[in-house]
Amino acid sequence: MPGDLPRQRFVLDTSLFITEEIRRDDESLEAAVLRLLGLVSTARLELNISCYVPPSIHDELGTMLRERDVDDAVFSRLDTWVVRKSPDRYGVTIPANVVYNFIDEMSDRVDRGLRVSEEAIREVEQLDPDKLTREADDGEREAYMTEADRVLSNLRDKYRRALRQGVLDSREDFDLLILARELDAGVVTEDRGIISWADEFGLRYVRGGQFPTLLEEYLRATGVADDD
């Protein structure tokens, strides 16, 4: 059957494996990832569907999975059924308009980041000096969140959202898109920034939480029962 079906390719993001959206009720992360990789393997053998990751994504994913103490069986299946391939950064071309839009967006985000910083400075200026520090009964400074600490914490959150949320902010994200463009593959991710730029690149994409269901539907429609 695989030889009779047109070949489909997907490039997988780290977020696919980590998101809660791929888990069934009371299913652990390890069990969900093993089930997902079982679907990937069946789709590869029966439906001519191949899944890829760039080495940078593979390394990032490996680190995250080890931090969550997953079994070695997960890494074995991952390396068996998900192809590790470096993107052709020299051969793949990007439309000038994509680069133009990226520069325009980053310029706008820098302005937003500056505004967030200015608002935090003005807020600190309005604080009561007595609220900036606090002394314990023994006369020593207490290690606790002062009003200035609160402003700084809010600044970090707002600044991060202004500059990073919804934008390509890592080599891993860029590798994912370049590889998908090279292979004419669909992108599988839960990252809103990657989804937004997949549109800019003219790429197909699937939300990570929907990917297991998509594979199950493909298998069901072709009369293939997944063993897992």
UniProtKB/TrEMBL annotation:
GO molecular function, a single term: ribonuclease P activity
EC annotation from Swiss-Prot or TrEMBL: 3.1.26.5
Catalytic activity: Endonucleolytic cleavage of RNA, removing 5'-extranucleotides from tRNA precursor
Keywords associated with the record: Endonuclease, Hydrolase, Nuclease, tRNA processing
InterPro entries: RNA_free_RNase_P
A Pfam cross-reference name: PIN_5
UniProt KW Lyase keyword: no
Any one biological process term the GO annotation gives: tRNA 5'-leader removal
Domain of life: Archaea
Entries under PANTHER family matching the protein: RNA-FREE RIBONUCLEASE P (PTHR41173:SF1), UPF0278 PROTEIN TK1425 (PTHR41173)
NCBIfam families, alphabetized: PRK04358.1-2 (NF003341), RNA_lig_partner (TIGR03875)
Role: RNA-free RNase P that catalyzes the removal of the 5'-leader sequence from pre-tRNA to produce the mature 5'-terminus.
Family: Belongs to the HARP family.
Full protein name: RNA-free ribonuclease P
Biological source species: Natrinema hispanicum
